[in-house]
Structure formats: C-alpha cells, structure tokens
Amino acid sequence: MRRWIIPGGVTLFALALGCHHEVEMVPLAERTIYVTDRFYDVQALGKDRAFVVGYGGKILETANGGRSWEVRPSGTELALYAVRFPDDQHGFISGQDGIILHTADGGKSWQTQESNAFFQDKDGSRQPLYLFALHALDADHAWAVGDRSILTSTSDGGKTWRARRVAMEADISGGESLAAADPIFYDVKFVDATNGWIVGEFGKIMHTADGGETWHEQEKTLMEGTGIFDLLDLPTLYGVHMTDTQRGLASGIEGRIARTNDGGQRWAFDQIEVEYPLVDPLFRVIELPDGSGWAVGAAGEVMRHQPGETAWKRAKLGQDVLTWLRGLSFSDQQNGWMVGGYGLIYRTTDGGKTWLPSQG
Prior knowledge:
There is one protein chain. By secondary structure, the chain is an all-beta fold. It has one domain (28-357): YVTN repeat-like/Quinoprotein amine dehydrogenase (Methylamine Dehydrogenase, Chain H, 7 Propeller), CATH 2.130.10.10. Helices cover 1% and strands 36% of the residues. A four-stranded antiparallel beta sheet has the order 1-2-3-4, with no helix packed on it. Strands 5-6-7-8 form a four-stranded antiparallel beta sheet, with no helix packed on it. Strands 11-12-13-14 form a four-stranded antiparallel beta sheet, with no helix packed on it. The protein starts with 38 loop residues before the first strand and ends with a strand.
C-alpha cells in the first residue's frame, strides 16, 4: 500500500534570531517541546491561542502566545496530521490509521470517533487508511480525506462518519497506472455547506457543489501553457485554500502554486520570482483578507506575495529554517503560526515581518 512520506530535513533546526531579539530559554525539566517532535498542523484560535498536533499523538495548546504550552491527552500514539476548530469549543483531528479525535470542551479532552476509513482486502480483512487532512465547517459538519481517494464525512458532530471512495471521472492512464485510479488526497476545504475542494496526487483538483455527494475534476486547465501534455505528469498538490466560492489557491511539488478566480473552471500556475530555483514541495498555502499570501514547505521554504500582487517570492524571515514546514495558520492578518520538523513552532505578531520560535 502506498504511504505518504513527509520529506525530512537535516538533524538540526535553526534558532538564530539576530542580535536584537531575546528569547527566554525554558528549563529542560519544564519543556513540552523537544527536538524529536514533528509537528504536522497548527490551528490559530485567536491572537494568543493555538493548537498544534504531530507525531506520536501529540497535542499542544497555548493560551499565551506560545510562552508556555500544555500537553492535551490524545489517548493515542498515532501520528496526527490535521486539526480544525470551527469554533472555540468544538474541534476535530485526523491522522494515521484513519483516526479521528473530537473535542467539545475546547480541547481539554479528546475522544476517538469511528471514521470508517478503511480498505477491504480480497481476503476480507480491513486495512485502515491514513487521513491526511480534514475541514470542519461547523460543530456538526466535517470532511476528512486521505489514502486511496478516501473521503469520510459527518453531519452530526462525528457521532457517525460515512466513508466512501471518490471515483475519478475518467481513466486518464489508459489502464497503465492503478495509482491514477485511486490517487492519494492531501487536503480538503469547504467554503459553505455545498461547495468544497479536494487536492492530491497527479495534480488532482476535485470540486463538489452538493456537499460532497458528487465530485468533478478541475485540473485539466493546469496543463495550458506549461509544456505538460499528460495529466499524469501534473505535480502532486498538497494544500488547498479557498477564500470563497470563486477564488482559491493550491500548492504542491516543485514549488508550484495554482490559482483560480472563477470557482475552478480555470486554474493556472502563479508566477514564482526567486533568485535560485524552487524545487521542493509547498505543503500549505493561504491568502489573507488583505490579499497577501503565504506558503510553507520542505527544506524550510517560506513563500509570500504582497497585497495586490500574484508573484511569489521567498520570505525574508531573518533566520534560516533548516527543516520542513508543514502547518500554517493565521487568526488575523497580523497573528500567525507555522510548524514543522524537529519541534519547530514559529509565531508572528506583525504580519510576517518577523517570526520568533516558541521554546515551550
């Protein structure tokens, strides 16, 4: 069975802050964050409050802007890949082996829910499928996606989850590739109760207009003007961010960032302006209300575009980040977080002009 591999980095990450910043070192006995941690996602719930999830079932919460972190018991040692809170009290987490966790008390306690995300072998045995991403529209409605084109959804706050495989509209591989028939899905985003998008392997961009009951592919327009002639050669997409039913972004392999302004009828790759080639994947991309954009990925890549622009440039962070970055979340235009390998948690309070690490 194919499995998702998060690119690693070197065995250290940088905490070089420049001469004008002071970061208080937390005594080792009091720390909740270690260099062995791998963080896959972050959710900002306000200026100072955030949740982080990662390897080994780790859930962290801060209520003071990262000056201290509380470990929240998850009840599992499975990797947790995505966390989403539709409000301050209700939240969902998805991860390895089809696990879904739910909280109704603001993240103080988490309970396992049955996702029904599995693949049935010929001998009748069930193999759990990884759920790499989820989106919660409100306390009742949520969707999670992952391996083998699996989609599972709930309309009752997770009391029941209905899993199904999203079928591709056509066999674009001529029967030559089984992988193309059930691509891995890496991200999902709904903007309302009916309109949602999924992205994944082979540049897949799927859209639903009926709450996830039926899906239609939108990736074909990505080939125009790129020199790509086979749909199977489209770069895998890891992240999707839809501002509304018309405008959205998707990010993926080779640092590609795709954009739509018409609900996905047409997608085109944004311009990337860099002094040396961007070859690593971008795992997350967002666009803020002021029109600025951010994307993070492997090898510590952080890209951004300014309001009113669409060309992406490498962000000037003031320090080197020598590991992959997987999670990205802003509570507003000024306050945001990004997380990644080797226990890295960075925070900005000035719209990304400066990013400081959280020691925990």
